[in-house]
Amino acid sequence: PTVTATYSDGSTKTVVATFTGYDMTTAGTQTVTATFEGKTTTYAITVNPVSVADFIIAAGEVEGKVGDATINVPLNITKMYANKNIGGISVEVNYDTTKFTFDKSVDWTKGDMIKVADDIIINTVTPGLIRIMFSTFGNEITPAMVAANNLFGSVKLHIIDTTAAFESAITLTTDDDLYDEMANTLIAMKDMGASLKAGKVTIKKDSVPTYTAQVMVSHGLGFSGDKYKYVYIKKLILSEGNGLYDIKIGDYELYWSPQRKCYVGFTTLENYDQVTGKFTNIQITATTEPSVLDKYGDMDEDGRVNISDFKEFRNDIEFDRPMENKRRFHADTNLDGRINGTDLKKMKDFIELEIDIIDK
């Protein structure tokens, strides 16, 4: 800062003085002492209080679902100084280490207002605390930038237990400073009217989807005795999309058929109400990799339908051997709920190249 010095001969000169005796962090009237070459003078200034809501950084409130591996938490500048640029921000993101992990090398994404990536330093020395420090000379955050897109950046948290529903707070703190580029001073964030707003992560369970089914009750399925009566589910289609669920009815797993774009399956009569046409003991859980039935006739699941599969199938029928659940799907090549000579003939025709597709 400069003052005008008046010399004994009446001449004047603008000089750089030293100013003491004031506290810019305290509102009210302050007395400033200017000193230059042993000479001093004083004058009064008024320090106005700063509104407590002039500048706000807020963590987002975000939702995910059970099964998600990660979740992104945005940090937004929800209120910006009207006539000031910001050249420095230090904010700490606090998270629960029993719920999440964070890797600073890949899990931070800057917002558009940060023009130079190297202006951000991420510190994760303290577990559960991500210190994000922004400092720049020449690439300050302006009110116009915040108005265009208020995302300061986002942190990606890795969920430790992907099977549980929970809610976890994401709090923001600071013990560092905010640089006020306009005043060219270093002032604590709290004294510049900066406010920090906490967010939270909520992980919810998916609601169980509704479904429609075409059901066929089959007796025996090529086996002896009433012991092997089964409900054959010709189609089971979920209202929330296909190919995204693991499904069991009682102890019996259903399989996603890419060819038919539905689930197919067997279950015993005890899991099916013949009066209402409803399944009981059904378990539906979200997944990214459902159990797939992709080769009808592939009895040994080697990826091919050939003479060895034909021999296995023929022996199963001739010797009335019970089949484990998935083999029934491979064997029922015409999807009629019965395992018999018709399926065997279709497999034979496919192997001898008399038909091109076995699962239509």
Q: Could you walk me through the main structural features you see in this protein, from its secondary elements to its overall organization?
A:
- With 360 residues, this protein is mainly beta.
- It has four helices and 28 strands.
- The chain has helices at 143-148, 307-318, 325-331, 341-351; strands spanning 2-6, 12-16, 18-20, 28-36, 39-47, 55-59, 61-65, 70-79, 86-94, 100-101, 108-110, 120-123, 129-135, 151-159, 166-173, 177-180, 185-188, 194-197, 199-204, 211-218, 230-238, 245-249, 252-253, 255-257, 262-268, 272-273, 278-279, 282-286.
- Strands 7, 9, 12, 13, 15, 16, 17 and 19 form an eight-stranded mixed beta sheet that branches. Strands 6, 8, 10, 11, 14 and 18 form a six-stranded mixed beta sheet that branches.
- A hairpin with a 4-residue loop joins β16 (177-180) and β17.
- α2 (307-318) packs antiparallel against α4 (341-351).
- The longest helix is centred in the C-terminal third of the chain and has 12 residues, at 307-318.
- It is rod-shaped, with a radius of gyration of 36 Å.
- The protein starts with a strand and ends in a 9-residue tail after the last helix.
Topology of this structure?
Elements: E1 2-6, E2 12-16, E3 18-20, E4 28-36, E5 39-47, E6 55-59, E7 61-65, E8 70-79, E9 86-94, E10 100-101, E11 108-110, E12 120-123, E13 129-135, H1 143-148, E14 151-159, E15 166-173, E16 177-180, E17 185-188, E18 194-197, E19 199-204, E20 211-218, E21 230-238, E22 245-249, E23 252-253, E24 255-257, E25 262-268, E26 272-273, E27 278-279, E28 282-286, H2 307-318, H3 325-331, H4 341-351
